[in-house]
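The methods section describes the discrete structure representation at length, but only in general terms. What matters is that the chain and its backbone geometry are given together, residue for residue. Nothing conveys this as quickly as seeing an actual entry. For illustration, here is how one protein appears when written out as sequence plus structure tokens:
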Amino acid sequence: MKNRILVVLLLLFVSIFAAGCSQESESNKNAIETYLEKEFNGPNDQLSTILDQGPHSTELDEYLEENYGDIITDLDQFINSNYVLVFLRDAHFNGYQLGSKNINIQKTENTQSNLYDYEVEVEYRKDEQTSTTIVSGKINLDENGDISRIRKMDGQKLSEELNN
């Protein structure tokens, strides 16, 4: 009888632990998806107006804080490292619109850290022409589920296309 109780308690503990990990993983994926959607959709009218004011406007600082402050650990570092608005800035100044078609996020197995691989199918449009490309990379999250590091590994093709 004692063994049965221990087995039931063990199974209950494992189930609760697994559910907690699953919820944490979903929350982490949501933070990453939010970042990717912000980076690969637009620019909208508000952002275009702000970008036209120059790179050091108060409005741009406010926009970045409002849109990225809750999901990125050190926003100033990310801005200085060109991890925000890179593609949207190029799209704006070269007359393109971006749209994310498919976003795939997978936790990297067998690592101690919160490391995720991402892949985004990005549609870019100018005038009447539409093309797509894939941008992929890795994102690290801190213990709070905020983005602490981004490694864009395969955005060169999109960058080249936007600057042609």
The radius of gyration is 20 Å. Helices lie at 2-39, 45-52, 58-68, 75-80, 86-93, 156-162. Residues 14-22 have pLDDT under 50 and may be disordered.
